Amino acid sequence: MVNVKTAKREKVTEKKFEFEIKDNILVGDDLTYPENYDNVGEIILEILRSEPDHIGQIEATTGKQSTYKEMLDKSVRCAIWLRKAGVKPGDVVAVCSSCYCENYIPFLACLYIGAQCAIEYHQLPARTFRHFLSIVTPKIIFLHAHALDNLIKAQNETSTNIRRVIFEDQVPNEESLDAILSEQTVAEIEKFRCEDIENPKHAALLIGTSGSTGVPKVAELSHLALKTMMHPVYAKIPDRVWLCVAGMRWITYFWNLLGGLRSNATRVIAEDAQSAKYYLEIIRKYEIEYYGADTNQLRQIYKLGLINDYRETKLKTLRFGGSPFSRDIHETLIKELPQINTLQAYGSTDIGNVIVAQKPGSTPGSCGFIRPGIKLKVVCTQTGVALGPNKHGEICVKSNTRINKYRGNPIATRNAIDSEGWFHMGDIGYYDEVGELYIVGRTSQFIKYNDCCLSVLEMETIFDMHPDVYKAVVIPVPSEIEGELPVAVVEKLPDKEITEHELLTYFKKNMPEFYMLKSVKFVKEMPRTSTGKIARNDLKQMLCVAM
């Protein structure tokens, strides 16, 4: 057994999380929960009651503030209404929203009463609504007025009777959120008590996975998973003002909400999928200290020449993740923004948490070290045997935040969770001699070319470093002789001109000799899924049609 707590690597000796490597398994320290409640709603109400005047959130565009007192009042009123509407523990309530400042209300209400909260995007075509409703079968759905027509169409086509609550007021023949909240009395609020949770492993949250290479699956997360997400080891951060840009469709939304409450931080809520320049103004205006961003935002900071602007802000922590990121760009940001801790993290909706994270001093390009309560191994993709340091294989994880299953998809569940309870992340990676984790790529994103296995991530990283390229995605296309050939789909930086020949020459100069690139195709903008990921299947279909 290697005790990593005493491993000798000066730059990380006092900066990492504590864990051990035993039989080629990385084992994080045990978690001791500070509360005895199985219902995470009890923890939340305790926090909200503790500082009623604390500003829990601010809407970035309007400056509208919500105190803990208001958040408690509205969420409890909603819980009382749900009970009166016949919602019982285990029933499903759906919420279709994005970065709306009051969408926390039905979610917290569901936690309080032990209902399952099913999350979907706020703009859905009728066919997607049909699919969503068939899987989660909600009793009640909260949504925005602009989505109402498509929902009604889906309900009519499926003959489902679902009670609707609209976030906005004055929609004809529809109940509004404000109206249902106003029906509850102060006496009812004072008498309100959370539901006892019979089994903490029962479902609490239903949320779509990213679906970058296929149809999103509905992940089922338990009450225990949410309680674990809110554990101080994961959720408590000293920075006082957070910028939260993840829409409700992202698991990051829930990390921010629960973490913000645990940390008694003020969350500044802004629309997702905006530019780094847009968020820069919010960071300046509200003196943001903590910003959880996806890698696309860091790419913009670097590519669009915004480093000096971000250097002049009050930011203390820039935590990022979501997709692979260039080590060279990461090193540059660390060097140029020394007052900001620019730290990578690794997790997913399916595993329910950030399971690996950097601290100051971690190696640029790594994901950092496993966190307490986590077990992680890297296994041979052929034999399933756990591998030692610096050997590439599939990453497998055990955690209390892991999904129970994919709702309505037993085949996907069996493929993801093995008989010993290990969740297969679908990522290829390795850990070094002291346990720092590195991602090499997705198991589905290696291209078989002749007798070689080409890493999509490695090819995309090379394009990341080109000064005129904003984003490149490498897609395999069929070939009768070679099997598959890689094609680069490139989104150029604004006002930059570069040719296919120049990029092919650049690729050949910077990649190993056995790497081959068939061609380069330019797009104005990358297609995205409903969860914001690049839609690789759409790109592949586009390329196959063009060939």
UniProtKB/TrEMBL annotation:
Which domain of life does the protein's organism represent? Eukaryota
**Keywords, ordered alphabetically:** Ligase, Peroxisome
Question: Which Pfam families does the protein's record reference?
Answer: AMP-binding, AMP-binding_C
Residue intervals of the AMP-dependent synthetase/ligase domain: 59-401
Principal subcellular localization? other
What are this entry's molecular-function GO terms?
Answer: CoA-ligase activity
Q: Which InterPro entries match?
A: AMP-bd_C, AMP-bd_C_sf, AMP-binding_CS, AMP-dep_synth/lig_dom, ANL_N_sf
Q: Where in the cell is it found?
A: Peroxisome
The residues covered by the AMP-binding enzyme C-terminal domain are: 458-533
What GO terms fall under cellular component here? peroxisome
- Would you identify the family this protein belongs to, as annotated? Belongs to the ATP-dependent AMP-binding enzyme family.
Q: Which PANTHER family match?
A: AMP-BINDING DOMAIN-CONTAINING PROTEIN-RELATED (PTHR24096:SF149), LONG-CHAIN-FATTY-ACID--COA LIGASE (PTHR24096)
Question: Protein name, please?
Answer: Luciferin 4-monooxygenase-like isoform X1
From which organism does this entry originate? Answer: Ceratina calcarata
The beginning of the lineage is: Eukaryota, Metazoa, Ecdysozoa, Arthropoda, Hexapoda
What is the name of the gene encoding this protein? Answer: LOC108627011
